[in-house]
Amino acid sequence: MGTSERKQREREEREQLFLDTAEQLIAAEGFIQLQMAKLAKACDYATGTLYQHFTSKEDLLMALMARQSALHLELFERIEQWQAPSRQRIFAICVAEQDFNRRQANYVKLSQYVMTEAVWENASEARRQQLLQCGQPICRIVSGIVQQAIDEGDLDPQGASTMELAYGTWALCQGSHTLDHTQGLLEAFSIPRGPMTMYRNMHRLLNGMQWQPLLDLSQPTVLEQLVKQIEQHLKIAS
Amino acid sequence: MGTSERKQREREEREQLFLDTAEQLIAAEGFIQLQMAKLAKACDYATGTLYQHFTSKEDLLMALMARQSALHLELFERIEQWQAPSRQRIFAICVAEQDFNRRQANYVKLSQYVMTEAVWENASEARRQQLLQCGQPICRIVSGIVQQAIDEGDLDPQGASTMELAYGTWALCQGSHTLDHTQGLLEAFSIPRGPMTMYRNMHRLLNGMQWQPLLDLSQPTVLEQLVKQIEQHLKIAS
DNA sequence: TCGTTTTTTGAATCTGGTTCAAAATATGCC
DNA sequence: GGCATATTTTGAACCAGATTCAAAAAACGA
């Protein structure tokens, strides 16, 4: 019946209100400061109502993550559509990642936190599934690019599965973000901050996979050009 | 005077008692369950006494991490002494890492948690410094190996700094652990669990750096032999 | 031995997440 | 509309557990 449809929609709207507001509060004072009661009040609802949407604070944080990753996905989908040599496309993923993380620094911190056992275990099973689901399309796109490379003869898997190669690039991205994000780490070891370090290492990895065309890192401008080109395509104002 | 020396030593012993007991409790029921009052009681001290050693629960967790990384370091130091081609040595770091993490699964989870902003910010400044200090020697060893490779002509940095190359391997290790450790992720994307995926990607990265001698991944046995050899050297009963 | 300083104690405090009985609202029926 | 029933919302009470701090105990020094 029509009534219950409207109710459903209203419920959905309220959930978005909660999430929007939570995002604002987090942006303003960090996610550690987020308080359930404060959030509810800021939305003009009682605390209990908040708990009809989220089984716990952790569950809320995970919901926030899941929503954010939709944005994340959007970026990836743009790359999926892009007609370009496979090696440019896989690298575009890294550039997009990097840019996304730079803009959404809070998101990185949040995802780091959410993936923690302490948090993960405290969210509802449904939410965990939802979050894993969010990863699926991203995974599909990345391994799609790897597959394209193999099909077009740019990449000889040498017995490795598509996923294994995708995993490599993913791990390098992931690890770089973690290191970049660890308080004081780069400074302590005097590694220059910025994406280029990661970009170069990514190309070393891709070169090591024999992913054609190989990129010559001894010519810094080649990489710089490539990055510029990709940023342009992604319409990133770096 | 002599008295205060003894006092100092007793204080130190008590701190170790707290840490040892905390480790046991964590091993038994996970670090989420760790409660300050429970821990104090288990050591036959009052809660307040615990707080004379650690400014907060987070501070305690970080102290635990710092102590663990001494073990971690030990492993690395063994590799530092090892007379072998640079490429074997850098790879040995990964194998050691991997093995260490397999054995000390709790430690990985803990370090993931501790590096989180929410936790990091809640520990004392001194503790944070201490933890960063722990990273120093590891960093020194890794970049030492990179340097050796360059000096011996196994590796042409092509303008990259020693640290940049070390960062690459580190990030790949780090990222692999994070992915491996994320609940349900490997399963969701049907990537086989186990260290070999990471090992192969590490060699792709090293090959991409043109780190000699290159390793031929199309011959699975070559890598297997190498791993076996290194495990033997590290006296790891895999 | 006694006054002073340091250390230890653990009950009280405080914070903030979570619950749930009561109140409010919506729904369906005549 | 008016009424009985079901659903939703409310927010004060509850609770867990980290942290504090005034009082008690112990150590020290003369």
Strand content of chain A: under 5%
> Biggest β-sheet of chain A: count, sense, barrel?
none
Most extensive chain interface and residues per partner? A-B, 56 and 56 residues
CA gyration radius of chain A, whole angstroms: 20 Å
Number of helical segments with 4 or more residues of chain A: 12
**Morphology call of chain A:** elongated
- In oligomeric terms, what are we looking at? homodimer
Note the run of SSEs of chain A as H and E. HHHHHHHHHHHH
Q: Helix/strand-derived class of chain A?
A: mainly alpha
Task: Please report the distance between the alpha carbons of the first and last residues of chain A.
Answer: 50 Å
Instruction: Calculate the mean pLDDT score of chain A and round it.
Output: 93
Low-confidence stretches of chain A: none
Number of strands of chain A: 0
Helix content of chain A: over 70%
Protein described:
2 copies of one chain form a homodimer. Chain A is mostly helical. Chain A is 73% helix and 0% strand. Chain A contains 12 helices and no strands. The first copy, chain A, has helices at 2-29, 36-42, 47-50, 57-81, 86-103, 105-114, 117-120, 125-151, 162-181, 185-188, 196-208, 220-233. In chain A, helix 4 (57-81) packs antiparallel against helix 5, helix 5 (86-103) crosses helix 6 and helix 9 (162-181) packs antiparallel against helix 11. The longest helix of chain A is centred in the first third of the chain and has 28 residues, at 2-29. The first copy, chain A, is elongated and about 60 Å long. The N and C termini of chain A lie far apart (50 Å). The model of chain A has no long low-confidence stretch (mean pLDDT 93). At the A-B interface, helix 6, helix 7, helix 8, helix 9 and helix 11 of A face helix 6, helix 7, helix 8, helix 9 and helix 11 of B. The structure holds a DNA duplex (30 and 30 nucleotides). Chains A, B: It comes from Alkalimonas cellulosilytica. Chains A, B: InterPro entries: Homeodomain-like_sf, HTH-type_TetR-like_transc_reg, HTH_TetR. Chains A, B: Keywords: DNA-binding, Transcription, Transcription regulation.
